[in-house]
Amino acid sequence: MPDIKHFDADATLDTVVRLFWRDGMVSTGIQDVVSATGVNRSSLYATFGGKQELYRAALRRYAERRSQPAFRRLAEDERGLPAVRDFFAELIEACCHGEYARWGCMISNAHAGAESGDPEVRALLDRLYRELRGSLHAALVTAGRLNQLDPGVDPDSMAEALALLAHGVNLRSRAGVDARTLHRTVTATLDAIGAIGGHGTTAP
């Protein structure tokens, strides 16, 4: 029986998340994981399983720590359209500045990558997309109640469009598009759906 090295599984998984997030699942081999974490293969296999199982665990960790808290904050925010603006502003800031600049989003990267062919990964991605769309829908319903939306805006259709825009921001930022361009695109979209000149205000 191989000697299993003792290590902090949580800290190791956090490192693996960053590795898969930055480089993608296909481009990351087990030896890359061993080198980045300092954990030997037998310990990795015994704790997480093979590379595919390790990737699934990393994707779940990313969703739990990064995506879902942002979705909940948006869904629970009672400000309406300003909450949507802030959601996108924070998304662009995270994508274009700081430690994880130009990494995109691990979820969006998975949608665009071969890893989405794994049925378990696909199911997780589909569930997260529904959660993203649901949080945007909740914010738009609030915006409608506050008279912040143009009367012709359908929250169902617009939530779908904004969810697609969020993934587009993630993917385009990874491709090197600058923050100013992304902000202009988001601002134009939100201005187009807002009441009274598109600024989410109401008449006095």
TrEMBL record:
Residues 29-48 bind DNA. Keywords: DNA-binding, Transcription, Transcription regulation. It comes from Streptomyces chengmaiensis. Pfam families: TetR_C_13, TetR_N. The keyword DNA-binding applies. This is TetR/AcrR family transcriptional regulator. InterPro entries: Homeodomain-like_sf, HTH_TetR, Tet_transcr_reg_TetR-rel_C_sf, TetR_C. Residues 6-66 form the HTH tetR-type domain.
